[in-house]
Design goal:
three-stranded antiparallel β-sheet, 11 helices, Beta-clip-like, 343 residues, alpha+beta, globular, 14 strands
Length: 343
């Protein structure tokens, strides 16, 4: 997501005084592709502040209205959800217990099915087919090795990286395009030195996902670090069933959403993310908005005190917030009490 202030985040592409007209045209085309069907409702533009780019409404919006909906580029359930097969592996909707598996040849799109090779469970034939064409065909059995590694290390980002490389490979296979990688490159990324464990993560990722030498060169450690830096500040918690502002927990799923990645943070947000049915993101207005307003959400629990909010934002997103609420809550520097006079 975009930074909110005093950020250590970076951007691969951004408007500068030296940006050529051709580069700006390429960037605008990528923005149009990311915005897609919502082109008449929102726009991506530079905020003119240290926040960088942001998402702005092009229309007036009533409180409680859904401004946009978006499918994730990649998503994954929590480790507990995955280990208990309690949610659909693709859309993260809850599955009944016990799961009644059906054949994949049935005409009922609401049957619960599983992959015969890796046993991933899906809520319907439609979800299974969507998963296959988007990423599963490229990572069916191989991703299980990454999954076991991630469960042991309690880190989900390598799993999302595996799905990302699968989507890129299948996108090129079916459509002969690298649009997914182009979209990823315009997202903000954390300018943090890669921790040592990322090398271990990459080795597990490489052994499972990159069997061809050509792919090892394309998706090398430098590529992996960039993807991890993108995931570090752009993933959101997915609490399926949430229709009011809800803070993510370790039991939440996670996902990367292209358009939502441009929404800046505020501890006094005017929007929130809802997931009423599945991993489909709904951006909902908290208050009436007028045309041209920047859309903001809270990256954490805005009801926490100043120190807790700042610690969460810096630890998880790499920036210190200077929104109006934080400036108001900023602990004042009180003068020291004078020392008692010597007697």
């Amino acid at each position: 997501m975009s930074s909110s202030s005093s950020s250590t985040n970076g951007q691969r592409f951004k408007y500068t005084t030296t940006t050529s007209n051709n580069e700006m045209a390429v960037l605008e085309n990528i923005y149009k592709r990311i915005i897609g069907q919502h082109h008449d409702k929102v726009m991506i533009k530079d905020t003119g502040t240290s926040h960088g780019r942001g998402l702005f409404t092009k229309v007036s919006v009533a409180a409680g209205s859904t401004i946009i909906t978006e499918q994730p580029f990649v998503s994954h359930p929590s480790f507990d959800q995955a280990s208990t097969n309690s949610v659909c592996s693709h859309c993260l909707t809850n599955l009944p217990t016990p799961i009644t598996n059906a054949t994949t040849t049935g005409n009922n799109k609401h049957q619960h099915v599983h992959c015969p090779n890796c046993r991933q469970n899906y809520c319907s034939v439609n979800c299974k087919n969507t998963a296959e064409t988007q990423y599963h065909l490229a990572c069916c059995t191989s991703i299980d090795t990454v999954r076991k590694y991630c469960q042991a290390e309690k880190r989900r980002f390598p799993l999302l990286a595996a799905k990302i490389v699968a989507r890129i490979l299948l996108g090129y296979h079916f459509n002969k395009t690298m649009e997914h990688w182009e979209n990823l490159q315009v997202l903000s990324f954390a300018k943090k030195d890669p921790p040592m464990e990322w090398k271990d993560d990459y080795l597990a990722f490489q052994r499972a996902m990159l069997t061809k030498e050509s792919n090892k060169k394309k998706f090398n450690y430098e590529w992996f670090v960039r993807v991890m830096q993108i995931l570090y500040i752009n993933t959101v918690g997915i609490q399926v069933g949430a229709t009011t502002p809800t803070a993510a927990t370790p039991d939440s799923g996670i996902g990367l959403y292209y358009l939502a990645s441009f929404i800046n943070h505020s501890c006094e947000p005017n929007c929130f993310l809802a997931f009423p049915n599945d991993h489909t993101l709904n951006l909902v207005a908290l208050k009436p908005l007028k045309q041209g307003d920047e859309l903001t959400i809270s990256y954490g629990d805005p009801n926490k005190d100043y120190v807790e909010r700042q610690s969460h934002l810096f630890d998880n997103y790499g920036f210190s917030c200077q929104c109006p609420k934080c400036l108001l809550d900023l602990p004042s520097k009180r003068p020291k009490k004078p020392l008692a006079a010597d007697k």
